[in-house]
Amino acid sequence: MDDLPEQVAWEILNRIKTTSDKNSVSLSCKRLHKLDNEQRKSIRIGCGLNPANEALISLCTRFRNLEKIEISYSGWMSKLGQQLNDKGLHNLSATCPLLTHLTLSYCTFITDSGLTHLASCSRLSSLKLIFTPRISGFGVLSVVVGCKNLSTLHLIRCLNIATTEWLEYLGKLETLEDLCIKNCRAIGEGDLIKLGPTWNKLNKLQFEVDANYRYMKMYDRLSVDQWQKQWVPCDSMIELKLVNSIISPARGLACVLVQCKNLEKIHLDMCVGLKDSDIVGLARKSSNLKSISLRVPSDFSLPLLTNNPIRLTDECLEALARNCSKLESVRLSFSDGEFPSFSSFTVNGIVNLVLKCPIKELALDHVYSFNDLGMEALCSAEFLEVLELSRCQEISDGGLGILGLYPRIRVLKLSKCLGVSNDGLRPFVGSHKLKVLTVDDCPQISERGVQGAADSVTFRQDLSWMY
Fold this sequence. Notes:
Blueprint: H1 6-14, H2 19-26, H3 30-39, E1 42-45, H4 52-62, E2 68-72, H5 86-95, E3 101-105, H6 112-115, E4 126-130, H7 137-146, E5 152-156, H8 165-173, E6 178-182, E7 204-208, H9 211-216, H10 219-225, E8 239-243, H11 253-257, E9 265-269, H12 276-285, E10 291-296, H13 314-323, E11 329-334, H14 347-356, E12 361-365, H15 372-377, E13 386-390, H16 397-401, E14 411-415, H17 422-425, E15 434-440, H18 447-450, E16 454-460
Parallel strand pairs: 1-2, 2-3, 3-4, 4-5, 5-6, 6-7, 7-8, 8-9, 9-10, 10-11, 11-12, 12-13, 13-14, 14-15, 15-16
Helix pairs in contact: 1-3, 2-3, 4-5, 7-8, 12-13, 13-14
């Protein structure tokens, strides 16, 4: 090993991907140990770090070129030792001058005081905080003020972030490209207006509201009403995900939907106030759309704070089919409270979308209107490769057997479908038509029935959902 050329030794280490293998190789000789110390760019540590502060200093001293660090205390209990605290975060900022990506998950001992130390990490471009309950908006503000290159910020279940001055500051910086806010109860749709010019820089936005909290409080609705009627430029937005959000006509997030002309992927889950006109406007503007996922609230799951009935119909599917010629993935779902007579998408609407666009992946969940006739109509879908059917109770063995006529179908996933049995899968046994078959919680399909139906089969059955 002493005579091995430097570039060859580096190439060997580059080809070793798993952490355990890297550790083993670094122990084989002093030279590889030294090279590994220089080459290691990222580490992930958690409950086994004890004593936490001292062990972290040791790791950061050994790996001088660390750029990405993830610290996760998921599943932590007091008997596992003390967590990393504010002092440890100070040590981290002092010993990792090249730090660019930091993730703190379930770090319940870290406070705003500790987070202020990250302001000295001038290279920090990505910060992800997952359930850090002692962090407030002041701590986040200290980071965004000190870290001028911050382009990614994820805040997930940070329940004490109430002040939003940091949003306004980020808006002025115009460096943010990826923003994720999930279940931070004090942050509502109305606060997003503070991003200002940064809206035009964002590539990816994920905004999710705690549904239970939303339905008990009026804060978010009142906050949305404060939006001035405006059009927000979102020319850089590629991916947008909204969950339990309020879509208010001509304001707030409704303005965002119709301004994403370069959008490629959108996920709208239980968005209150969402209408056909919103999707139609989106389709007309976003001709590059490749993936869309819609989960629609039922009449019985709507909050009391809206007076308008929610109903997406075939009109929005027709707009997608007419304007989005690059659409490859479609997921349509209704909430658990939906009854068969309330389905708003018809078989014709769904089939028309799949046949007019190059759809490779179609997933239907709780879409009771889709039946065997729909399965038969999809035989003309020349691009369809992946089909997921969950709780589609109008599909029988006859409809399932028609899959054999699909020109490109390779992956089939069935979940909680009551109308299909082993007989529906029998035509696929030994045919090698399917590459992947997944069957979850379908009461009439047995483990024996799926054997040989695809090259790779996954079977699971837990029927507790029926009772």
